[in-house]
Design brief:
20 strands, globular, 156 residues, mainly beta, single chain
Amino acid sequence: MALIIPVRGFTPEIGRDTFLAENSTIIGDVIMGEECSVWFNTVIRGDVNSIRIGNRVNIQDGSVLHTLYQKSTIEIGNDVSIGHNVTIHGARIHDYALIGMGAVVMDDAEVGEGALVAALLCCHAPKSVLMNFGVAHLPNSSRWLTLRPLGSSTKR
């Protein structure tokens, strides 16, 4: 069974038909929607601020979601997929977004509806990923490369 820990008077709220892997950990001020999945070794830590997760969100193995004390929160929309070993720290992710494996989405960054954040990208404020666009980074560089708009053949 997953480890669900109340903290500061907040007990995580988990929506119906949600799968929690037996060694996932959910702490504090977390509200998760329906039909989500939280996979092995994932930590969702709402110990210092709120984390809100929509419906049908898939959070894959080894991911960490956390916030900055009294400064940032996490808001994740519906139908979002978060790849293996992703770190989300105080960011907003809109509906239908895909966060690639190993990506880092930092405080106050915003990922638009239907956007794709490539594997291993570090996404930080004040930058935002536009709706229905993909982003990647150039090897051996801190520069972002904005990919073409995602059309109906590349989405979902």
